[in-house]
Amino acid sequence: MEYISTKLKQDLFVNTIISIHYFEYTRDFRYPGESHHFWELIYCDKGQLCINAGNAEHILDRGQAYLHLPYQFHNVRAHGGKSANSIILSFESNTKELYNISDKILSTDSYTASALFSILREAKASFENEPGKLHDQRLIRKKTREHFGSEQVIQNYAELMLIHLIRACDITRSDRNPPEPEPISESKSDRTLMRALEFMKQNISNKIVFSDITDAVSVSSTTLKSLFTRAYNHGAMEHLTRMRLDLAKELLRDGDLSCTDIASACGFCSIHHFSGTFKKYESMSPTEYAKSIKAMLSD
Known about the structure:
Elements lengths: L15 E10 L13 E8 L2 E5 L2 E5 L3 E5 L5 E5 L5 E9 L12 E3 L2 H17 L23 H24 L14 H15 L7 H8 L3 H12 L3 H19 L4 H7 L5 H12 L3 H12 L2
Helix pairs in contact: 1-2, 3-4, 6-9, 7-8
């Protein structure tokens, strides 16, 4: 019997990636705006964003996204007097169906968020660029890549995410309920990791030890160490410290609390412990960070 191959059709193709960013905006951040020849997807991860697209102004809540058209003038600022975070993916594509999801607020789901954060993770492994640097004009490849196929993974996730958004938009227009997409990952280990992360998030202001986490998710210490090492290249308690620092940076950007109150809110045992840990990871004191982040984002 002679088998005949079938060349698969490709309806959407992301030709090139221009930039991959995770921005942390201070509450008084302003950006004068720009226009360019490529697509730009902005996703609100925390807080609220006020964006201008052409002559229209929109407010993005957490979990919402907006796809800017090529050559469309746009800008962004934090909204509501609070800090905000976004993921921005800029890319080139000739797919005409992208116009169906552009120039409108997109309500996304966990599939979209998971894809975007996977893109960020792979970008960190692939490129030298800091994800929060505003004016990088190109991606710089690492001399030694950390993972096989990382750039292809970025392309695959970007294409899957955009296909998912286009399908959801098509189904909404025809008044049908969108089918649940296949989850990006549903292994038992991933579910355990997510439960551990949720426990850590819920207890971020409390004093917890490693055994508290293993008890909460019902796994051995060896298993938990393996899960975090595989996902993040560091342990669970190291990750908890980074989560505490991420929250501390958000509170410092807001500027409403003193360093003593922030230390308590983020689970540090004292202001000295907070300052020392912050300086170890960020190479500056909390006070210096609060001043420098405003200067950096206002460049």
